[in-house]
Hints:
The complex is a heterodimer.
Chain A: H1 3-17, H2 21-30, H3 32-53, H4 85-98, E1 99-101, E2 108-110, H5 113-135, H6 137-152, H7 155-166, H8 170-196, H9 200-207, H10 212-249, H11 260-268, H12 276-307
Antiparallel strand pairs in A: 1-2
Chain B: H1 2-7, H2 16-24, H3 30-39, H4 44-51, E1 70-74, H5 89-98, E2 103-105, E3 111-113, E4 116-121, E5 127-132, H6 146-156, H7 165-168, E6 178-182, E7 185-189, H8 197-200, E8 227-233, E9 237-242, E10 261-265, H9 269-277, E11 283-284, H10 289-295, E12 301-311, E13 314-316, H11 326-334, H12 338-346, E14 350-352, H13 375-389, E15 395-402, H14 407-419, E16 423-430, H15 432-436, E17 444-446, H16 455-462, H17 479-489, H18 494-511, E18 514-515, E19 518-527, E20 530-531, E21 548-549
Parallel strand pairs in B: 1-10, 1-11, 15-16
Antiparallel strand pairs in B: 2-3, 4-5, 5-7, 6-7, 8-9, 9-10, 11-19, 12-19, 13-17, 13-18, 14-19, 20-21
Amino acid sequence: MNAEAAANEENKSEKRTKPSLWKTISIIFESRVATIGMVMVAFWVIVGCISLVWTPYDPNSSDFIQNLSPNATNWLGTDHMGRDLLSRLMQGTQVILLKTRLPGGEHSIPGGVAIWGVLGSLFLGVILGLNAGYRRGWTDQIIMQVLDALIAFPQIVLYLVVIAALGQGDMVVILAITITGAPGVARLARSLALDIQTRDYIRAAETRAESAWFIMFREILPNARGPLLVDSMLRVGYAIFMIGTLGFLGIGLPPPDPDWGSMVNEARKYIFVNQLPVIWPALAISTLVIGLNLFADGLREELMRYQK
Amino acid sequence: MEIIKRKDRKDAHPYIPELKELYQKGRVTRREFLRNATLLGMSAAAAYAFISPFAPKKAMAAAMPKRGGTWKCGMSLQLIDHPARLSWTEGANVVRQVSEYLSDTGPDNITRPWLCEKWVASEDLKTWDLYIRKGVKFNDGQVMTADDVIFTMNEWLNKDVGSSMLGLLSYWGGPQNIEKVDDYHIRLHLVSPNIGVPEHLWHYPGVILPRNFEGDFIKQPVGTGPFILEEFAEGERAVLKARKDYWKMGEDGQPLPYLDKVMYISMSADAGLAAFQSGQTDVHYHPRPSDYLALKDNPMAKILTVDSSYCYPIRMRVDLPPWDDNRVRTALKLCQDRKKTLQLAAYGLGKLAIDAHISPAHPAYCEKPIPAYNPKKAKELLQAYASEKGLKLPLKVKLATKNDEAEPEIAQTLKQTALAGGFDIKLDITEAGGYWDRWTEVDLGITSWTHRSIATMVLPLAYTKESIGAWNETRWYDDEFSALLKDAEAQLDVEKRRSIMCKLEDIMQERGPIALSYWVQIMEIVNKRVHGMEAHPTHMHTTLRSTWLDG
């Protein structure tokens, strides 16, 4: 190999290890699966953004005849309370993906309850899982025993405990998602850390006397991001289901502000009379969850390809 | 008047002639006459004979009941131990097929004698003679006598048993006031007069037990009723088989019941609907408005309806702010768009109500205009309150209820309609058990109240000083109201009782603790092969003894 070839190889290596932002984003478009997933997710994000400023009618106002089929006025029909389904479906996107209402209900922050909940569980789970997987020994024992106990605890009971202790509201739902999701993330992070810590570059880092936190977050975590990313995307879907479950128990996001899970739950009683109020939000949930999964899968494949 | 006097029976109550006169003058309705005459000891047959002496007999074309078959119903099944402790209609539906009551309040909301052959009240309504039906046997072969009835009454009044009959019958003054005159005659010496004795004897924990009952109905299912408990598994099923020696005869001259078996299968409302649609059950118990919509055009379904005093009052804790201020309570009442609520919560199936827990289904109900939706006036009242307290409108309040029947729809409708009146209502809707754990404690809530046949049964339960700590969930009481209620309990004259009810309704509307939009129309949805069954305002299955299946 001559010097020029060696320099080229070095450049390529540099490009591989430090891709530009656009290069990273463009990875998505190199995967058809990721692109389809992203389009599906983007559709709902756009719908949600539009609903922040406009919906066809007031989503909570019973202005129409109950249980109408789709028509020129109500494109998706109306629900059992005579509310416009399209407006409710649009607004339902907000609470999941776009905004979280702060206690008091007057202010909100960007990012939906499902997103913040998953980020919370990711943050907590990764810290615990990496520590357990990398440090091993007593640390591993203690962390995993506690997390196993949490996993063994029925999830609904765990939600009830959290919400009974802290009351209702978006932030409490986020905390509930965080607490219930973190053990799963921690297990995954631990198993990845156990595998990755046997690699030579970890030995090299230890030889360089890097700190444990550096190794965990700069050496192990980047190499574990693929599975964690896919898992997180899936967890957004679980979180959406969970918000609906909490709504069903009356301890989630209180009506009448719609979220898709509660919309399914409310319309369930009328499923033999009018199926559409169940179908539309169910379709919204499934398309968003499938979109997130496809996006995550495609992204992981591309990231793995680039890592080879 | 002479004719009436000639027809008087010695054992009938002295008020009955006057009641007859009122009926002839059109001052009491047919139903009110029947109800009051039977309450005062006149036999139902005599009462019916009086009001319709030339009424045609039932059409001869009516089919003769057929015997045999298993009647199935999906209904949740809770734990049953001592029948005196029954607190759910579902449990009572099982027990009442095996054991019976001294009286029987029918689907027409009229109470008639049952295990009592008749009763006679003294003129001052403080002494009641109960004549026990002779020749009635328990399903273990024992003959029922006054001893069994007195044993059962003592169980009701025993604090250790914990029966809700104890509070209801507080005016009995304790077991010492029950006198055994002979083996088939009991005399009650009440401490205060009460016209509701026969109605109270039908309160669902009030089944008559054998004198050797040991406290667990599942281990010792002994009663005088038409069925025998064959199997009971909490949360699973109850199977009852017909008794061959029941005391009441059917139309074919043989002992009732017509059915071979009755089977209750424990299931949720959704599963119950699916089971009915697929023909696996004969009855869809306690249908919700959504079930009615789903089944109304089903060719195999027959819909039975009856008016009731079943309701969903929005109740306010008057011992807590802001509900301790009558302006705020009145403002909330004005924020009800009753028509809209009835339409959204019950698809119009019910009757609009005033803000008083006295229903048109109750005797002596006093007709009042339905208050209009008036958010403007509500806002004025709230503004005055808020200015005084240094608060800003909208007034933030939390409304708790259960995700069960029509409560979520009522709550959501109120949230919409009350916004214009100055309320910002946050909804706290939990599953049913979650609400029942705290129903007496929440500041503002929607509680479902089952039907009671007379207003003087429900008002003492929830709107008196004595009921605080028990079922008075609002902590509201009013001296004038309580005094009038006592008068109503002791008032025989229907017209005078109605005038008292007028005042009671006015007080509840003016300063009472509840807002009420509508009265529920009770429905029972049955398969067309089921005959002889009627919807009962309490959802009780009172007519299974005479129910039969065709095919």
